[in-house]
Design a protein that fits this description.
- This protein has a 34-stranded mixed beta sheet that branches.
- By secondary structure, the protein is mostly beta strands.
- It starts with a strand and ends with a helix.
- It is elongated and about 140 Å long.
- It has 8 helices and 42 strands.
- A hairpin with a 2-residue loop joins strand 5 and strand 6.
- The relative contact order is 0.04.
């Protein structure tokens, strides 16, 4: 409203968002003539302003606008509880006039948000006085301030004091500051500011300066950044293109990579240049003090924005993956590798590429989420994964989160690493083994996982569960394979596995035929499981093998178990009650037996074996017990199966027992089958073997012992084999170099 020589102004605002910003300002400007020149007095009336839900009081004050363009501010005060900003003085082009600004517990972060300062967030409660000279020309400052809980990027640095004075000779502002954290000096700063050139030169002596404030620049890649820096840093240049340079000794810096769940530590020098951070041959350590070498370069615009980084970590036996199911429910585990981890990216996206060869103590899990059950005729039925398994839906972006981290793991798997394929998490079907192959795992923040590669099992076990009572470990044969072509649920398998036990042939064969074939009724039996095609719905085939029996006995058993239905039935009986199923036409002539004792012993031993593994947190030891009785012959047979594999080279497998069979032809009541195998080379091509087997020969059960060396090479054709050995003989030195 304007009338005569006055203008009354009322400005009001209010938002409709969750955080309230509202208020009003009421003023009256009165104009008058001073020696022919127009001047004015602005009267500010008391009002309230709400900023981010905080109510601030505008106290009454006046502002005089002089004809010489100077501005006189008289006792302006803006207050919120104990916080206030008080302004009084003269704003002009002369360096003789000054404007005094007094503050008390003013939140610096609040002011910086109003100024929309980019690149760095500054916080703390500031109390003190600032004098601004030549505000309307080239302003400079003289200040004495105390900052309580001073912070950078919301990370506390300490309490600080900042002071500045005017150097009239050199026409610049002298600056000094000191920051303390308790009794420790965090940093000292000294330098000057040149108003005419709007440039600064500040020398910072960092003594125990926290590096946590740098976390902001690596969000999505690094978290829980901790440690301290000490050294000399120079801050210089025009305020619009300010730069840093110097050398910082980083003490006990720890950085966690959330996508890998690994934390690395280092204490070394970092070199700051105008628009980059250089790291050269820095020794880094994982959580178990395994060492690697880090080299990297981070480029920015001088104010730590628009960052581009390229960091490379090369390590030997370094922890490169340490995830759990909650981090990635399909692929997780602990992987020690010899190789490299390269991290590149910008402030929008990061790429982590890890390449290496697995080392001892590595164990990774692949969780398929399948299901299996038992039926009488079709012993194992893998249900259609479409009906029982829901593939994970692509991850949705979190509102406001645009940073994407891409991970590419290229792993050369060796026998040192243990792989566990969880086929059915609820039922407990698990494939565990060691082998060789090349796997590539790719995933990022917003998309599904992809898996590529082939994996050949050298040793392993398929823990198969029947309901919740029976747990059977099938020993996977050397050379079994798994392969992926992208879809993690599309694994192709070619697995042969055996479950060894001892069973009586009396339950399967006619007594007269049995006596003509062998005098030993209880023989070692291998239940052979063959899985091919799609792991989630494989082609399944069973076989029965008698490893220590003669050919006549094997042919007789094959003639009896000559259909798929009979094979499935026999396998079911062997696994559940540790005995053969007696065909209907023999039920009246066979001696019979007690299935209950065998079933109870088998079930109990499986649970005990599982408890031992959990108690000692190891898969090195596995054992089972069996007790079979015959009500007619009063025969009792006690057996124990022991498997001990303390590392990836030594394997001890035994089937020990004692029979109380009371027959005149039984001259050996001890059952002893022991196999010892040791890998002389890491690849397993050269092995030492020793054994003690109970065999059927010439109608008698005898013990046979032996030791020997086994050498094995794999070839895709006979021609490749001939070329390999011919080339090796012709020029072994050249072959080794290649």
């Amino acid at each position: 409203k304007a009338a005569k020589d006055s203008i009354a102004t009322n400005i009001g605002w209010q938002n409709v968002q969750s955080v309230t910003n509202a208020g009003e300002i009421n003023t009256v400007a009165k104009f008058f003539d001073n020696n022919g020149k127009t001047e004015a007095r602005l009267q500010i009336f008391p009002t309230q302003v709400i900023i981010a839900d905080s109510v601030w009081e505008v106290k009454p004050s006046t502002v005089d606008l002089k004809s010489d363009s100077t501005i006189h501010i008289n006792n302006f005060k803006f207050a919120h509880n104990d916080q206030f900003i008080y302004i009084h003085g003269v704003a002009s082009k002369s360096d003789r006039d000054s404007l005094t600004v007094k503050t008390n517990d003013v939140d610096v972060d609040f002011i910086m948000n109003l100024l929309k300062l980019k690149g760095v967030s500054i916080g703390g409660m500031v109390t003190g006085q600032i004098k601004v000279f030549s505000l309307l020309n080239k302003p400079y400052y003289a200040a004495n301030l105390f900052a309580k809980n001073f912070s950078l990027n919301n990370k506390r640095i300490g309490d600080g004091t900042v002071s500045s004075t005017w150097d009239d000779v050199n026409r610049h502002v002298l600056l000094s500051g000191m920051f303390m954290d308790g009794v420790d000096t965090v940093a000292l700063a000294k330098g000057f500011y040149v108003p005419k050139e709007d440039s600064i030169e500040l020398n910072i002596d960092a003594r125990k300066f926290s590096v946590e404030f740098l976390s902001r620049y690596f969000e999505g890649v690094v978290e829980n950044l901790k440690g301290y820096g000490s050294g000399h840093v120079q801050m210089f240049g025009p305020m619009k293109t300010i730069g840093f340079k110097g050398d910082i000794l980083a003490h006990n810096v720890a950085a966690k990579f959330p996508m890998l769940q690994t934390t690395y530590f280092f204490t070394d020098s970092i070199h700051l240049k105008h628009k980059s951070i250089e790291m050269t041959n820095i020794k880094v350590y994982d959580e178990e003090r395994n060492q690697g070498i880090l080299n990297g370069r981070i480029v920015h615009d001088g104010m730590f924005t628009n960052m581009n980084y390229d960091v490379n970590i090369k390590g030997k036996n370094i922890l490169a993956l340490n995830t759990r199911a909650e981090n990635n429910d399909y692929f997780f585990g602990k992987a020690y590798v010899t190789g490299t981890v390269r991290i590149t990216g910008t402030d929008k996206e990061a790429n982590i590429v890890a390449t290496g060869t697995t080392q001892p103590k590595s164990k990774c899990y692949i969780q398929m989420g399948g299901a299996s059950k038992v039926a009488e005729n079709d012993f194992i039925v893998f249900l259609n994964p479409v009906t029982r398994i829901e593939k994970p839906v692509a991850k949705a972006k979190v509102p406001g989160v645009d940073f994407n981290t891409k991970v590419d793991l290229q792993i050369d798997v060796t026998n040192d690493a243990e792989m566990e394929l969880i086929v059915d998490p609820k039922g407990g079907d698990i494939i565990t083994g060691r082998g060789t192959g090349n796997l590539r795992v790719q995933f990022d923040t917003f998309s599904d996982i992809f898996l590529y590669g082939n994996y050949t099992l050298n040793t392993g076990y398929y823990l198969f569960t029947l309901q919740t009572l029976i747990r059977k470990e099938f020993k996977i044969q050397n050379g079994s394979t798994l392969s992926w072509t992208g879809d993690p649920f599309g694994a192709k398998v070619d697995i042969n596995a055996i479950y060894p036990l001892t069973a009586s042939l009396k339950d399967l064969m006619d007594p007269a035929e049995l006596e003509s074939t062998t005098s030993r009724t209880s023989v070692p039996v291998n239940c052979v499981l063959k899985l091919t095609d799609d792991l989630m719905k494989p082609t399944i085939k069973f076989e029965i093998d008698l490893p220590q029996s003669d050919e006549a006995t094997k042919q007789k058993v094959n003639s009896i178990v000559n259909t798929e239905e009979m094979m499935n039935r026999q396998i079911a009986y062997l696994l559940v009650v540790n005995k053969f199923y007696t065909p209907d036409y023999l039920r009246t002539t066979t001696t019979g037996g007690n299935n209950v004792s065998s079933f109870v012993a088998s079930t109990l031993s499986a649970h005990i074996s599982n408890w031992v593994k959990q108690a000692f947190n190891t898969n090195s030891l596995s054992f089972g017990v069996d007790w079979q009785t015959s009500e007619i012959t009063q025969q009792n047979e006690f057996k124990a199966q022991v498997l001990y594999q303390p590392n990836n080279r030594l394997i001890l497998n035994g089937n020990l027992g004692y029979s109380t069979e009371n027959t005149s032809t039984s001259n050996n009541r001890f059952i002893g089958d022991i196999d010892l195998e040791y890998l002389l080379s890491e690849s397993g091509k050269l092995r030492f073997k020793a054994y003690n087997h109970t065999i059927d020969r010439l109608g008698e059960a005898k013990l046979s012992q032996g030791v020997g060396l086994v050498y094995k090479e794999d070839f895709v054709s006979v021609g490749d084999m001939i070329n390999y050995y011919f080339g090796w003989v012709k020029g072994s030195a050249t072959k080794k170099q290649e």
